[in-house]
Amino acid sequence: MIPIFTLFVPMPIALLFVGIIHLFGDIWKVLLFKRGFDWRLILGFGLSGIAASFLGASLSLQAEGLPLKRILGVFLILYVAFLFLKREWALPRTHGTAVCGGVLSGLCAGFFGVGGAVRGAFLTAFNLPKEVYIFTSGLIALFIDVTRVSRYIWGGTRLEQDLLIALVLSIPVSFIGARFAKRFLTRVPQKSFRIFVGIFLGLVGAKLLIWA
User: Fold this and answer.
1) Prediction pTM value
2) Can you give the residue range of the structural domain that contains 19?
3) Could you tell me which residues come within 8 angstroms of residue 41 by beta carbon, excluding any fewer than 6 positions away?
4) Contact, 55 vs 201, CB < 8 A?
């Protein structure tokens, strides 16, 4: 959504609008997929992500993130290609991996509104069951998105009336999307889930590289 919105509105406004939609999407994921979770993993990602997203949001108010989007796109494409070539390889399942994932995803989310793909790249290392993966990702994202949205507003970014109306209309749509995702995941075998996530990350990377 960020690449499309920046064609019509300034980057800070696009980040705030999309950030609020993401925030509600996080809430739906937490409510719909609450199956099981690892608090140590969530805190490892979440606490580092909060600090990094605040920093990223602060930087976004003063800098243009276009070149960094393309760098992120290249990183994701190379990461996914490596995963498919080396199917048995994965990041180590350590607290350090969680902290690094939180820092990078929080920084990316705060700076140019694209943190989920980076978070997914690190979460795949823990090979979580699909419902737990969605819940964990949603709760971590909730920490990060609340922080960055608050920072955008604190920095003076505001939505005008037409965007506020569009935002109100978008919130129920995000819930419908989360419900659809839940039904879809019940039909995806666990063995195929990591492949599905990898393809998604690759598509996001291609979009960032080509249409940043």
Assistant:
1) 0.78
2) 10-210
3) 98, 126, 136
4) no
